[in-house]
Amino acid sequence: SEYAKVKDVTLGADGSEAPVKNLLTVIIKDSSESDVTANYSIEYITGELLILRRTYTITTLSAEKVYDGEYLEGLYTAEFDEGFVPDNTEITTTKEKNAGIYTNDITSISFYRIIEGSVHEDVSSNYNVIIEEKGTLTISARPISFVIGGTTWNYDGTEHSLPDFEEVLNDGVSQLVPGHTASAKDYVKIKNVSRVLNSVTIEIKDSDDEDVTDNYIISVNEDAYLEITKISLSVRLKNAAYEYSGEYYGKENFIVSTDGL
Known about the structure:
The protein is an all-beta fold. The chain has no helices and 25 strands. The chain has strands at residues 2-3, 20-22, 24-25, 47-49, 54-60, 63-66, 72-73, 76-79, 88-93, 95-96, 100-104, 106-115, 119-122, 127-133, 135-140, 142-148, 151-154, 165-167, 181-187, 194-197, 200-205, 216-220, 225-229, 233-237, 254-258. The strands form ten sheets. The chain has a three-stranded mixed β-sheet with strand order 8-5-14, with no helix packed on it. The protein is rod-shaped.
């Protein structure tokens, strides 16, 4: 006899499991092994064969780290019925590298069977994937501290600033991710006589010149001042006598002395 064989899930038009006809061909032979099937009128009552999807339950896991410029890729666990050996799987999960909180999701999943050496046959339709629980990926911003200074100038009519800064090392170790550089993006400028708090906005970029400042918690001291002081100016009026002429006198009867002009 010959009969129908089915191994994989068959899908209907609506995407659900669909049965296939259970067909059987009977061959009748006599004692001498001769085929005598034609001598019989055989009535076949067909049945149905239905392969149901195998449930594949996935739980994605939580993980956390401090920002280091590298990707944090979500892990997962998977469960089948005891004793069942699944086909090969390819699963990708959430992968992030910037500071933030992310849901660890399954971004793609496929099942395949290896045939003829290296050829992959997709058998994903044989499985019903259930994501039972989703974990969380947490990348915390990287703390880093800088110190800026202050200074004083005598007024000279020009604009002054002091954007220089230094990193405060942690046990002698820089908290910048290797390949990252810090620079002054904005800073206080002063021109006239005054005393102001020095402030520097620091920007951090990676080796590809991408701005990664938001991945850091930047601390800068707030106790440095910039000051411009007044110039000491001395004006000494001269003594002078003129004979009356009806003109005004006295325009240039003074001497200015200073070490700042």
